[in-house]
Structure prediction request, 272 residues.
Amino acid sequence: MGVSGQIYSISLSDIEVSDFNVRLTDKNARIDELAESIEKHGLLQPVVLRGSHGNPPYELVVGQRRFRAHQKLNRDSIPAVFWGELPDINFKILSLAENMQRVELNHADKAEAITALYVHYNRDGRRVAQELGLSPSTVREYIKIEEQATRTAKDLLQQGRVRKADVKRAINAAQGDEAKLDRFLDEMTPLTKYEKDRAVSFAKSNPEAPVEQLIEEAKKPRFQRTVILNLTKEVDDALNQAKEQLSMDRDIIAANALAKWLQDNGFLKQEV
Prediction:
């Protein structure tokens, strides 16, 4: 017996998550974004239930995240189809197959589509974010890489050979120099996260510095001490905004701001 063709509107209270659903982790991952998408566009694919219509409770076999998103939206019901009665192992296989066959769009395809919408909506990133149920910062990340990354960087990202965060670092460090971007992306691979961020910070202050110097500066021993700051909400919000727009960690931005203040007030000698 396969999935019935008829779609029913089923009360959420009549549905129980099956013990045979294979998604045990990340059940609530990006539920807010999924809920926003459902609110905007509706549910594009009904969930699959075990049992027969008219005889609740029903077991949810496929569509756990869609079900939880409907709960998040305080919906009373959800579109569903039924896959009658089968042995337990068959439902475990069904759940596993559905999750394994769901191929997520790669970064390049997402970036191209998001950028196309961005252009269509007159470069209004917030409008794109609303349409897709994404955060504005996520939209900006995709657009930045689509518009500023080199073909080589995009290919490496699509192949999974580099991380999105490293492509953003290379863009920030190169500041429009495509050859420098590709070279920096290649050379930065063995660096630690903090070394990479130091290289980007130095590149921004020294735009003419070659890649070799960026790597050299990144590897220099650094004395580090943790400072706990009490921030007002306004400063905290501004710091978060800077983090999103600059693609830098909060601690790096704060350290740079503190160093600049100390230099401006004569407490720290400015490097020549």
Residues 223-272 form one domain. The radius of gyration is 25 Å. The chain has 13 helices and five strands. The mean pLDDT is 82.
